[in-house]
Amino acid sequence: MRVTYDKAEANKLISEVGAAPEMLVQILNAFVENFSYISEEAVRHIAQELNLSRADVHGVVSFYHDHRTEPAGKRLIKICQAESCQAMGSKALTAHAVESLGVGLHETSEDGEVTLEAVYCLGNCACSPAIMIDGRVYGRVDAKRLDDLVAAARN
Amino acid sequence: MGNPTMVFVPRETTAVSLGADEVADRIQSIATGVGAAITLVRNGSWGMCWLEPLVEVDVDGERFAYGPVSVGDVDDLFKAGFLKGGEHTLKLGNAADIPYLKNQDRWTFRRCGLTDPISIDDYRANGGFDGFLAATKMGTVGILEEVKKSGLRGRGGAGFPTGIKWQTVADVPADQKYIACNADEGDSGTFSDRMLMEGDPFCLIEGMMIAGLAVGANRGYVYLRSEYPLTRGIFGDALQAAKDAGWLGENIQDSGFDFEIDLHIGAGSYVCGEETAMLESLEGKAGIVRYKPPLPAFEGLFDNPTVVNNVITLASVPDILVAGGDIYAALGVDRSRGTLAFQLAGNIRHGGLVEKAFGLTLRELIEDFGGGTASGREIRAVQVGGPLGAYFPENLLDTPLDYEAFIELDGIIGHGGVVVFDDRVDMAAQARFAMEFCAIESCGKCTPCRIGSVRGVEVIDRIVADENRDANFELLRELCDTLEEGSLCAMGGMTPFPVRSAVKYFREDFTRPPGAEN
User: Fold this and answer.
1) How far apart are CA B210 and CA B314, in angstroms?
2) pLDDT-based confidence at residue B518 (cuts at 50, 70, 90)
3) What structural domains and CATH numbers belong to chain B?
4) Nearest Cα to Cα of residue B35 among B63, B1, B8, B67
5) Omega before B99 within 30 of 0, i.e. cis
6) Cβ of B417 and A88 within 8 Å?
7) Are residues A24 and A95 in the same domain?
8) Using CA atoms in the order A80, A83, A84, A85, what is the torsion angle rounded to 10 degrees?
9) Which of A89-98, B1-10, B87-96, B411-420 has the least mean pLDDT?
10) Among the listed residues B121, B358, B312, B283, the one whose alpha carbon sits nearest the alpha carbon of residue B203
11) Which domain holds residue A146?
12) Using the beta-carbon criterion (under 8 Å), do A121 and B417 form an inter-chain contact?
């Protein structure tokens, strides 16, 4: 799934967000949104553009959960693991997802189809448990609904 | 044919998570097909989440609600003549008359659900920007006076008096000051910041403008968590609409006041909800907490004096200036004045947002508004105030919701999140999770939080496995003391709250034979 680093696209993202050190978190967010992860090349490139050391950039990348350093699968599924969802069966739902998708939490399937991640609260707590598929939140998700949503996302 | 019929379908996250977009599309397509003239408004949510997607129809000025509507119900609603308020099993009457809503004290959320969130005209027609216009005439002293009089305290969780914080920043001489709004709403069981920003975003913008006027700041930042993508879109649109209409930018409405707001997005870190970690993140760095002092009021964003306030705190201010601080302060009890937007979550039948004056009991909130558990089973534990809040057993539900009453019970009200668990919960597992969460989310700067949380998980595992149980209970107690007293911020400092309360009120979950089920 590793794609060639598109330096022109990267430069565009950096200039759109603003090539300043205080925009580093926002730039990294934009990279994750566009490339699904932050590669070693991206770290080098951003450091150069912002006049920071690679260690500076790496320190920020390694701090934030969103700043993935491996490419995500085609479908990104996040399941809430926080208290409100726990109270409505998120642990069993997660176990079902791991079983049915054949990937563990924070893993990508070998065929690159799907990445499964934990998330701590999607703010949909009145209709727990909640999941997010490719940036979209779904509420009151049981095993059947999860299967249906995953199947729909794959098509 | 008269004017097109107004149909409201929320664009808010919870409604959308249950199919509101599909419902809206279906309504539009059938209306087009049958030649019915409608104007579809994507409003905010009233906060009655269990009724979402809640569709409303304006019939001669009265708004009839139908819900929960699934996409499969739409054809049937048209057949029932819902555009004229026709009878249907999903008809709920006027939304404002539903007891859940009617029995609230809506202040900060009074427009949420009512209006089109990104329409400046709608906002103005419902009293929007009146607070700002009043503020331009009151000046710093007048604004601070009203905010102090209101008794408003920080709604993010810490409960610090807002007027005093603003006064401090106002008194510091500096060329550049900032208003930094904390919208990193990471506590499980909370969603009021999100609902306000999705349902009435101009209200937050107005609150920030007033804060800017009060302290002499012309620049604001909103730090919004990345888990809220819809909020980002709606709030971004609102910022643009405010700029286009001259409510942000230079010389706003000829007041001579300039104000700009930038929206920054977080990156999945819970600790960035701590104010100094948030400031670091706004500066583009890792969200590692700062030592205090200096307080952000003196040296905040880019070392300049900064007001850091939660979304709800700021959004409560415009109407305080319109109505007067004393009107707001007339609500509530003791030192908890005004209203709080409580959020009912977890295993709850009628989950949603309930804005009430302080002083009602937890039981009234959970039973009268929430209708008990979703599962219909007994309530066993209630966590109030997010992952750093205490767990309460059923027999403490008559505690009044007021900051000091909760502190007395070694708990917090925090940001107003209430998560209900039924009798199947394993409280030793919840205590273990509190430590585990702290280990995952610790910024790593101080040892008690970084290491103590990892040790906490291990000690709880040993207790549950019946290894030297008594000695390990004692070790856990000491560990909690170390975390509380030695941590730099609330992450490590308050993780003991859920842990200790679980041990205190639900000890039997820690002491059953290893492997035995609850």
Assistant:
1) 9
2) low
3) 5-102 (3.40.30.10), 120-329 (3.40.50.11540), 332-422 (3.10.20.600), 427-511 (1.20.1440.230)
4) B1
5) no
6) no
7) no
8) 40
9) B1-10
10) B312
11) 75-154
12) no
Cα(B178)–Cα(B182) distance, integer angstroms: 13
Amino acid residing at B31: A
Helix H or strand E segment including B420:
strand B417-422
Domain-located, residue A149: yes
Question: A136 and A93 share a domain?
Answer: yes
Residue A92 CB neighbour total at 10 angstroms: 12
How many domains would you assign to chain A?
2
**Domain identity same for A96 and A36:** no
Number of H helices, E strands in chain A: 7, 5
Q: What is the pTM (predicted TM-score) of this model?
A: 0.97
The complex's ipTM works out to 0.97
Q: At what angle do helices B311-323 and B130-150 cross, to 10 degrees?
A: 100
Q: Parallel, antiparallel, or unpaired for β A114-119 and A107-108? A: antiparallel
Q: Are residues A93 and A145 in the same domain?
A: yes
Residues 346-365 of B with CB under 8 A from A: 346-348, 351-353
- State pLDDT tens for residues B43-94: 999 999 999 999 999 999 999 999 999 999 999 999 999 999 999 999 999 9
Q: Which residues of A touch B270 (CB under 8 A)?
A: 120
CATH number of residue A137's parent domain: 3.40.30.10
Structure tokens at B285: 């760095």
B348–A126 CB contact, under 8 Å:
yes
Q: Do the strands B379-384 and B391-393 form a parallel or antiparallel pair, or are they unpaired?
A: antiparallel
